[in-house]
Design a protein that fits this description.
alpha/beta, 6 helices, 149 residues, 23% strand, six-stranded parallel β-sheet, Rossmann fold
Length: 149
């Protein structure tokens, strides 16, 4: 299995550090960069072409989901996982309908899918995760390998 590259785009330094700390020990996952703003996430995604983008919903005034379509236009092979503390079902569904492949609860980074294997745009897996460190790693590996050719 090839190395999965990850870009972490989170408004909070602590959020970026937590994701990096959880992913760093994984031999098959490499964090290639971090961004702390919407424009920074867009630029880094275009430049680095990560397989997975962890995108904080709080970017762009709590509307990080608004970045999903524009990012996928510039980097269509990137799989976007939305990071959220509190999000309504409508905002999560909005991000998923634009092409995000899943969501992770930031406060409970992250064990088992809450919505297993449903399909949406781009034949993407929908995955919402509940507490447990193992989920972050498993979700990135699973979602990144989904439809990889």
């Amino acid at each position: 299995m090839p190395l999965t590259t990850v870009l972490i785009a989170d408004l909070e330094k602590a959020g970026r550090a937590t994701c990096r700390r959880l992913l760093q020990p994984e031999k098959k996952i490499r964090v290639v960069g971090e961004a702390r703003s919407g424009p920074g996430a867009m630029a880094a995604t275009v430049r680095l072409k990560p397989r997975v983008l962890l995108l904080d919903r709080s970017l762009v005034g709590g509307k990080g989901a608004a970045l999903v379509s524009p990012i996928l236009e510039k980097s269509p092979d990137t799989r976007i996982i939305l990071l959220t503390e509190r999000a309504s079902d409508a905002s999560i569904l909005d991000a998923l309908s634009q092409g995000a492949v899943g969501c992770l609860a930031k406060k409970r980074l992250p064990s088992e899918p809450a919505i297993p294997g449903q399909r949406l745009r781009r034949k993407s897996r929908i995955a919402c995760f509940s507490p447990g460190e193992r989920s972050l790693k498993m979700s990135i590996t699973t979602l990144a390998s989904d439809e990889r050719n």
